[in-house]
């Protein structure tokens, strides 16, 4: 009977040790899952911010193109005005 009790005590101690190990493993798995969720959220936020910044860059490039076209138009307008003034001066006989 003492032999059976000793065997049961040993098995109980083994089961308790296994349970403690499994509980520790379970806690670690839960923490890993929380970390994965945090990483996923950070990646999604990063992706969103990258899309916003890319959109802003495209807007700035378009604005640059518009400003360059506006500057060219203004230069041509000024040139035409100067030609018009010179032509007007020539027709008045001043030149």
List keywords for this structure.
95 residues; mainly alpha; 1 helix; rod-shaped
Q: Strand pairing plus helix content: what structural class? A: mainly alpha
Extract low-pLDDT stretches.
none
Q: Count the strands?
A: 0
Query: Can you tell me the overall shape?
Result: rod-shaped
Total domain units: 1
Largest sheet: none
Gyration radius, rounded: 41 Å
**Structure annotation, total helices:** 1
User: Helix coverage percent of residues?
Assistant: over 70%
What portion of residues belong to β-strands?
Answer: under 5%
End-to-end Cα distance = 134 Å
Following the backbone from N to C, one meets helices and strands in this order, namely: H
Mean pLDDT: 94
Describe this protein's structure.
- The protein is 95% helix and 0% strand.
- The radius of gyration is 41 Å and the shape is rod-shaped.
- The chain has one domain (27-95).
- The model has no long low-confidence stretch (mean pLDDT 94).
- The chain contains 1 helix and no strands.
- Residues 12-86 form a coiled coil.
- Keywords: Coiled coil.
Summed up, what is this model?
The protein has 95 residues and is mainly α. It has one helix and no strands. The chain has one domain.
Task: Spell out the blueprint of helices and strands.
Blueprint: H1 2-91
Keywords: Coiled coil
Coiled coil: 12-86
